[in-house]
Design goal:
CATH superfamily of the largest domain: Spore Coat Polysaccharide Biosynthesis Protein SpsA, Chain A
CATH topology of the largest domain: Spore Coat Polysaccharide Biosynthesis Protein SpsA, Chain A
Largest sheet: 9 strands, mixed
Organism: Gloeocapsopsis crepidinum LEGE 06123
CATH architecture of the largest domain: Alpha-Beta Complex
InterPro entries: Glycosyltransf_2 (IPR050834), GlycosylTrfase-like_prok (IPR019290), Nucleotide-diphossugar_trans (IPR029044)
Number of domains: 2
Order of helices and strands: EHEHEHEEHEEHEHHEHHHHH
Strand content: 15-25%
CATH class of the largest domain: Alpha Beta
Radius of gyration: 20 Å
Shape: globular
Protein name: Glycosyltransferase
Helix content: 40-55%
Structural class: alpha/beta
Length: 325
């Protein structure tokens, strides 16, 4: 029996599924089973999966149920003592499983491990790196404030804590990974592998129609999380909502850059500051104000040129001395 079960939900993933599987096959830790849940794909996903010659690969096809349902279905097929998830368009560095597993085995109390995330484009070129954070042990209060684990492609979890946490919420259309990690963090301590090991692919496909859906889901997760959070942590709610509105601002500035999107971005960053004034001291908030300033005083195309120029001159986080391939 494989020690680790890796679950990939796949829906119409023909452009990226083989690259994702290749990054898993390159793992330095090889005692795993790879479970792909075909979530009712109508493209060549299944055809491409049939070309993969690897006894560790198992493919199960279902009618489309959505990402949370696909992950839940994957869990029912998993036999490993540890379970990991990766979306069908993301990548891992070769040492991801090895180092996360070692971190868990060094801490008998820890139930889950996470690593840092770097963001890549469709050509797998580095866009920027997420902020390096070192939260360990009881990370529950930190996760209430912000989804610093970033995506559903990150954690490695002891199976017994998957069983006590329950299923991914199938009613959520977004942020289901944050909801799950909050509930998981209430069950067990976490450990961190302080390396960029998750490569999150950002698509250039239009997301304007999805931003409203994401906003609704994230607010739902926030409200639900604080409904069950203990009294002594309720003071974090305004900070959490401020970080949420800061995130919405970034979404609108990235995907809905028309006059309506810019107005919505302005409204949301103002709301973030009203909820938690200290957020203006964060570099992320200052970048947002700078972008909004450029968009208000320059024509759109010129403003975007400036934003891209300053983004290259002053990247969010630099990655030094680490290969991401």
């Amino acid at each position: 029996m494989a020690n680790v079960s890796i679950i990939i939900p796949a829906y119409n993933a023909e452009k990226t599924i083989l690259k994702t599987i290749s990054s898993i096959q390159k793992q330095s830790y090889s005692s795993f089973e790879l479970i792909v849940i075909d979530d009712g794909s109508t493209d060549k996903t299944c055809e491409l999966l049939s070309t993969v010659s690897d006894p560790r690969l198992k493919v199960f096809s279902y009618k489309n149920g959505g990402l949370p349902v696909a992950r839940n279905r994957g869990i029912t097929h998993a036999s490993g003592d540890y379970i990991a998830f990766i979306d069908a368009d993301d990548l891992w560095t070769p040492d991801k499983l090895e180092l996360q597993l070692a971190a868990l085995q060094e801490s008998s109390e820890a139930g889950a491990a996470y690593s840092w995330t770097a963001f890549i484009d469709e050509e797998e070129k580095l866009l920027y790196a997420g902020k390096p954070l070192f939260f360990e042990g009881n990370i529950y209060p930190h996760l209430l404030v912000e989804n610093f684990i970033c995506s559903g492609s990150n954690i490695l979890v002891r199976r017994k804590f998957i069983e006590t946490t329950g299923e991914f919420d199938s009613s959520l259309k977004s942020a289901e990974d944050w909801d799950y990690n909050i509930r998981l963090a209430a069950q067990c301590p976490f450990v961190v592998v302080p390396k960029y090991q998750i490569l999150y692919r950002k698509s250039s496909q239009a997301m304007s129609s999805k931003v409203d859906v994401m906003e609704k889901a994230i607010l739902t997760v926030t409200e639900r999380a604080f409904c069950i959070a203990p009294t002594e942590l309720q003071y974090l709610k305004k900070h959490s909502l401020a970080k949420t509105y800061q995130f919405f601002t970034k979404l609108y500035l990235e995907y809905v850059l028309d006059s309506d999107g810019i107005e919505r971005a302005s409204q949301r960053i103002k709301k973030a500051v009203q909820l938690y004034p200290k957020i203006v001291l964060e570099k992320e908030t200052q970048r947002i104000f700078f972008k909004l300033f450029l968009l208000q005083i320059f024509p759109y195309r010129k403003a975007i040129q400036f934003i891209k120029f300053f983004g290259k001159k002053f990247p969010m986080v630099s990655i030094q001395n680490q290969s991401l391939t």
